[in-house]
Amino acid sequence: MHTFLTVLHVIVGLFLILVILLQAGKGAAMGASLGSAGSQAMFGSSGAGNFLTKLTTAAAITFMVTSLSLAVVSSKKDQDSVITETEETTEQVPPATKEELPVK
Predict the structure, then answer these.
(1) How many Å apart are CA 38 and CA 30, to the nearest integer?
(2) pLDDT per 10-residue tile (average), the chain, 104 residues
(3) pTM higher than 0.85, yes or no?
(4) What is the CA radius of gyration of the chain?
(5) Among 56, 74, 55, 66, residue whose Cα is nearest residue 8
(6) How far apart are CA 52 and CA 64, in angstroms?
(7) Which 3-state string (H, E, C) describes the chain?
Protein backbone atom coordinates (compact mmCIF):
# COMPACT_ATOMS: atom_id res chain seq x y z
CA MET A 1 0.00 0.00 0.00
CA HIS A 2 2.83 2.35 0.91
CA THR A 3 4.60 1.71 -2.40
CA PHE A 4 1.41 2.21 -4.42
CA LEU A 5 0.70 5.52 -2.68
CA THR A 6 4.26 6.71 -3.23
CA VAL A 7 4.17 5.91 -6.96
CA LEU A 8 0.74 7.56 -7.31
CA HIS A 9 1.97 10.62 -5.40
CA VAL A 10 4.98 11.05 -7.70
CA ILE A 11 2.87 10.63 -10.84
CA VAL A 12 0.26 13.12 -9.63
CA GLY A 13 3.03 15.56 -8.67
CA LEU A 14 4.58 15.41 -12.13
CA PHE A 15 1.16 15.76 -13.75
CA LEU A 16 0.42 18.78 -11.55
CA ILE A 17 3.66 20.43 -12.65
CA LEU A 18 2.78 19.78 -16.30
CA VAL A 19 -0.74 21.18 -15.99
CA ILE A 20 0.48 24.31 -14.20
CA LEU A 21 3.13 24.92 -16.85
CA LEU A 22 0.51 24.54 -19.61
CA GLN A 23 -1.57 27.37 -18.22
CA ALA A 24 -1.20 30.82 -19.71
CA GLY A 25 0.08 33.71 -17.67
CA LYS A 26 -2.14 36.67 -16.78
CA GLY A 27 -1.16 38.78 -19.79
CA ALA A 28 -0.62 36.02 -22.33
CA ALA A 29 -3.33 34.67 -24.58
CA MET A 30 -3.66 30.90 -24.92
CA GLY A 31 -4.42 31.32 -28.60
CA ALA A 32 -0.96 32.71 -29.26
CA SER A 33 0.77 29.49 -28.25
CA LEU A 34 -1.68 26.92 -29.63
CA GLY A 35 -3.26 28.84 -32.48
CA SER A 36 -6.43 30.81 -31.87
CA ALA A 37 -8.86 28.61 -33.78
CA GLY A 38 -7.22 25.35 -32.71
CA SER A 39 -7.56 26.03 -29.00
CA GLN A 40 -11.24 26.94 -29.31
CA ALA A 41 -12.02 23.75 -31.21
CA MET A 42 -9.91 21.52 -28.97
CA PHE A 43 -11.17 22.71 -25.58
CA GLY A 44 -14.67 23.86 -26.52
CA SER A 45 -16.19 27.32 -26.69
CA SER A 46 -14.91 28.39 -23.25
CA GLY A 47 -11.30 27.86 -24.29
CA ALA A 48 -8.46 26.12 -22.48
CA GLY A 49 -8.48 28.32 -19.40
CA ASN A 50 -11.54 26.85 -17.73
CA PHE A 51 -10.59 23.25 -18.58
CA LEU A 52 -7.03 23.63 -17.30
CA THR A 53 -8.25 25.34 -14.13
CA LYS A 54 -10.54 22.41 -13.31
CA LEU A 55 -7.79 19.92 -14.18
CA THR A 56 -5.33 21.76 -11.91
CA THR A 57 -7.84 21.77 -9.05
CA ALA A 58 -8.48 18.04 -9.40
CA ALA A 59 -4.74 17.27 -9.53
CA ALA A 60 -4.05 19.47 -6.49
CA ILE A 61 -6.79 17.78 -4.45
CA THR A 62 -5.46 14.34 -5.44
CA PHE A 63 -1.93 15.44 -4.49
CA MET A 64 -3.11 16.59 -1.05
CA VAL A 65 -5.07 13.39 -0.43
CA THR A 66 -2.08 11.22 -1.34
CA SER A 67 0.15 13.36 0.90
CA LEU A 68 -2.15 12.91 3.88
CA SER A 69 -2.56 9.20 3.14
CA LEU A 70 1.22 8.71 3.02
CA ALA A 71 1.57 10.54 6.34
CA VAL A 72 -1.05 8.34 7.99
CA VAL A 73 0.35 5.11 6.54
CA SER A 74 3.90 6.04 7.58
CA SER A 75 2.88 6.87 11.14
CA LYS A 76 0.98 3.59 11.52
CA LYS A 77 3.98 1.43 10.56
CA ASP A 78 5.34 -0.84 13.25
CA GLN A 79 8.63 0.53 14.42
CA ASP A 80 10.62 -2.28 15.94
CA SER A 81 13.50 -1.43 18.19
CA VAL A 82 16.91 -3.00 17.78
CA ILE A 83 17.21 -3.21 21.54
CA THR A 84 14.49 -5.28 23.12
CA GLU A 85 14.32 -4.98 26.86
CA THR A 86 12.21 -7.16 29.06
CA GLU A 87 12.10 -7.40 32.80
CA GLU A 88 13.54 -10.90 32.74
CA THR A 89 16.67 -10.01 30.77
CA THR A 90 17.40 -6.72 32.48
CA GLU A 91 19.45 -7.14 35.62
CA GLN A 92 19.81 -4.41 38.16
CA VAL A 93 23.52 -4.03 38.91
CA PRO A 94 24.32 -2.01 42.03
CA PRO A 95 26.85 0.78 41.58
CA ALA A 96 30.43 -0.02 42.53
CA THR A 97 31.64 1.16 45.91
CA LYS A 98 34.96 2.83 46.50
CA GLU A 99 36.54 -0.38 47.80
CA GLU A 100 35.56 -2.33 44.69
CA LEU A 101 37.14 0.10 42.20
CA PRO A 102 40.46 -1.05 40.68
CA VAL A 103 43.59 0.77 41.80
CA LYS A 104 45.89 2.17 39.14
Answers:
(1) 10
(2) 93 95 69 53 60 92 96 80 62 70 68
(3) no
(4) 30
(5) 66
(6) 18
(7) CHHHHHHHHHHHHHHHHHHHHHCCCCCCCHHHHHCHHHHHHHHCCCCHHHHHHHHHHHHHHHHHHHHHHHHHHHHHCCCCCCCCCCCCCCCCCCCCCCCCCCCC
